[in-house]
């Protein structure tokens, strides 16, 4: 773990867990007539990538 470091915005990764909660609704967008706002919930999920550590 010494060779890894978190992104400067690592705290946004915690907000990405909201995207985990909304993931089934995003699937409904592609299979049913859900609104476009449901698809925008994917942005919460994309913030989870800030929480993944990278090499120095």
Could you please describe the fold and organization of this structure?
This protein has helices at residues 11-15, 17-31, 36-39, 42-46, and strands at residues 4-5, 54-55. With 56 residues, it is mostly helical. A two-stranded antiparallel sheet has the order 1-2. The protein is elongated, with a radius of gyration of 14 Å. The model has no long low-confidence stretch (mean pLDDT 77). It has a domain at 9-38. It contains 4 helices and 2 strands, in the order βααααβ.
Radius of gyration: 14 Å
Poorly predicted regions: none
- First-to-last CA distance: 10 Å
Helix content: 40-55%
Largest sheet: 2 strands, antiparallel
Number of distinct beta strands: 2
Tally of individual helices: 4
Q: Given the C-alpha coordinates, what overall shape results?
A: elongated
- Assign the structural class, choosing from mainly alpha, mainly beta, alpha/beta, alpha+beta, or little secondary structure: mainly alpha
Order of helices and strands: EHHHHE
Q: What percent strand? A: 5-15%
Q: Major sheet: order of its strands?
A: 1-2
List descriptors:
56 residues, two-stranded antiparallel ribbon, 4 helices
Structure described in brief:
This protein is mainly α and 56 residues long.
